[in-house]
Amino acid sequence: MTIAVIDYGMGNLHSVAKALEHVTHENVVITDDSRSIRGASRLVLPGQGAIRDCMSELQRNDLQGLVQEILRAQGKPLLGICVGQQMLMEESEENGGVPCLGYLPGRVRHFGRDLHDIDGQRLKVPHMGWNRVTQRHAHPLWAGIDDGARFYFVHSYYVEAQEDGDVFGTTDYAGLTPHVATGRGPVFAVQFHPEKSAHDGLRLLENFVNWAP
Amino acid sequence: MALAKRIIPCLDVDAGRVVKGVNFVGIRDAGDPVEVAKRYNQQGADEITFLDITASVEDRGTTVEMVERIAGEVFIPLTVGGGIRTCDDIRTMLNAGADKVSINTAAVTHPEFVHEAAERFGSQCIVVAIDAKRVSAEGETPRWEIFTHGGRTPTGLDAVEWARKMVDLGAGELLLTSMDRDGTKAGFDIGVTRAIADAVSVPVIASGGVGDLDHLVAGVKEGGADAVLAASIFHFGEYTIPDAKRYMAEHGIEMRL
């Protein structure tokens, strides 16, 4: 049994792999090799940086078609993290508009500029730090994690899924309710960084490793 | 507002050991970075900043190794600063397990590097470190300038304007250190913290001068900081992270407890 962290040249691969190794004895590989990716029992799609670069690196490494094929086949669990969550949507408004993988209906939007809270305090973008995640629907990946637990975020764009059934978790920021945990079938994706969210983050990764959708 | 303010212990690391200078002289040894980072993680630190102050190029490899070891055991965000000058430096640190890099001198000498780095890696992992020093006299309208080389070299750049420029170029966060206060334990320079926090759209980390827990509260409530960074009050056991978090929460600040 192998968990493959898809390496397309972007993303915090070391952190994700180390955190997975911390919660499982299964083999964790960081790979861009299509045979290893096909052969893995589970996949992690990380993402860091600008989404235009993430999508173009995925294409340049001939991995976009493979990932789409795997998503269509619905055969193995896949966890998207950060920009990896965003890439599963239809398109992002970052970098002037970028088409994405289109696994879930909906788009990726910017928080906006010059935001203020009700006290007039300036709200910062990126949304950076530990925020509470409300669990909208039950999911095996929430096992053992309190509703409202804090996870670590750092992002300026957020997912807005079209269908409520695809939304498993939300947070509150800038008067918005970003869809920070989304999924369908064997796919689960989070905007926050479970690999950087201390105990609850490791628990989510452990749940992913044990998930049998 | 549910987003918590952050407490960030800072590890100043020289040739593989945590040190903390008092006004950058009189360095005391505070231990192995990996052990120190693990302790802070267990205590519930919200992030860790690793500042490489190693002077010699040969010892830089040690830093990468340290970052790898910390990232293998500590599952909270890790920022690495010190000597970040090229996109290759950034790539190396991110691959070693850093989540963000902090750019200091290179931002002053080559501001376009901040833009290049943000375009390549995303603003969210680009922190610009701003070392500011008050240049106005007592009674004058307060003014701060950017200093480099540990506060020794003036640049003539206005700190608030500089902060705005760095954000325009793509900085995702600012690490603001008062060079007047660093190492003094007299508290943050609230004036410059407030001025910059109000001037920019990105999070500001207040740094330099923390001597007690009231200083942390003031950094957030009066300074408007999104995060507070401290070293010596934690390194030498005066306060623990939970002490600090409880105290700040008691003062009405949203914290991750």
From TrEMBL, chain A:
It is found in: Cytoplasm. GO terms for molecular function: glutaminase activity; imidazoleglycerol-phosphate synthase activity; lyase activity. Its EC number is 4.3.2.10, 3.5.1.2. Pfam families: GATase. Residues 5-209 form the Glutamine amidotransferase domain. Gene3D superfamilies: 3.40.50.880. IGPS catalyzes the conversion of PRFAR and glutamine to IGP, AICAR and glutamate. The HisH subunit catalyzes the hydrolysis of glutamine to glutamate and ammonia as part of the synthesis of IGP and AICAR. The resulting ammonia molecule is channeled to the active site of HisF. This is Imidazole glycerol phosphate synthase subunit HisH. It comes from Chromohalobacter israelensis (strain ATCC BAA-138 / DSM 3043 / CIP 106854 / NCIMB 13768 / 1H11). The gene is hisH.
